[in-house]
Amino acid sequence: MRRRAWLAASVSGVAWAVASMAALNTHAGSPATQVLVEAYGDSTTLGITCSDGRCVPQAQNAVSYLQDDLQAKHGDRVRVTNYGVGGTTATQLRDGTGNRRAGPGAGLPWQERLAASSAQIVLINYGINEVMQNQTPEQFYAAETTLVKSARALGKEPVLQTSNPMPDNRLNARLAAMVAMTRRVAAEQQVPLVDQFAYISSLPDWKTLMSDGAHPKPDLYRLKAEQDFQVVDPLVRRLLGGTL
């Protein structure tokens, strides 16, 4: 069952990646000698796992696993940087009001921060803190739409990711409404989507892979990275001058 779900999510993600190739062609020019990927998001991007009441960032997280997978295929020509910040939302990233210590340009509005970035691909993963901070799905939709449009205007390729599900059924129902907004933005803006929420929810034992009510264990971060790779790798290959 897990294998079928993995294949279904992968096929969907690759379809979005292929659909976005026209946008990449617009900005790519000659093949790149190096591809830089930046990952923006909350604590599940940062890579927090909880154990014995302590929640700390782990070296084994979805972003580091993704870099390992990409470098195993393309070598040091690909680098993935983790700019995840615990407790933050898409609105804060847009406005530059999140953690001001989170990397170069932190504290600047999104458009200014991204304009100074050399990354060709940006991953965007939010939704859980929108639920915890009682934002509306409409507010989340507006913020993610701006993030995507600004990235595209600057010649970047945005990749949207839905959040992993939450074990609490009440919170998860509210998160599903945020997930629907991410899917809507991906469809309207025609950008690649990694639907982690759908993939993880399809796993019969997914709750055992969570370390608390929001954060995966390393094994689930590994599975998330596999889904990310299915979507990001075709974009990387294209930028490096390869073929699909």
TrEMBL record:
<dbReference type="InterPro" id="IPR036514">
    <property type="entry name" value="SGNH_hydro_sf"/>
</dbReference>
<dbReference type="Pfam" id="PF13472">
    <property type="entry name" value="Lipase_GDSL_2"/>
</dbReference>
<protein>
    <submittedName>
        <fullName>SGNH/GDSL hydrolase family protein</fullName>
    </submittedName>
</protein>
<keyword id="KW-0732">Signal</keyword>
<dbReference type="GO" id="GO:0016787">
    <property type="term" value="F:hydrolase activity"/>
</dbReference>
<dbReference type="InterPro" id="IPR013830">
    <property type="entry name" value="SGNH_hydro"/>
</dbReference>
<feature type="domain" description="SGNH hydrolase-type esterase">
    <location>
        <begin position="39"/>
        <end position="223"/>
    </location>
</feature>
<dbReference type="InterPro" id="IPR051532">
    <property type="entry name" value="Ester_Hydrolysis_Enzymes"/>
</dbReference>
<keyword id="KW-0378">Hydrolase</keyword>
<feature type="signal peptide">
    <location>
        <begin position="1"/>
        <end position="22"/>
    </location>
</feature>
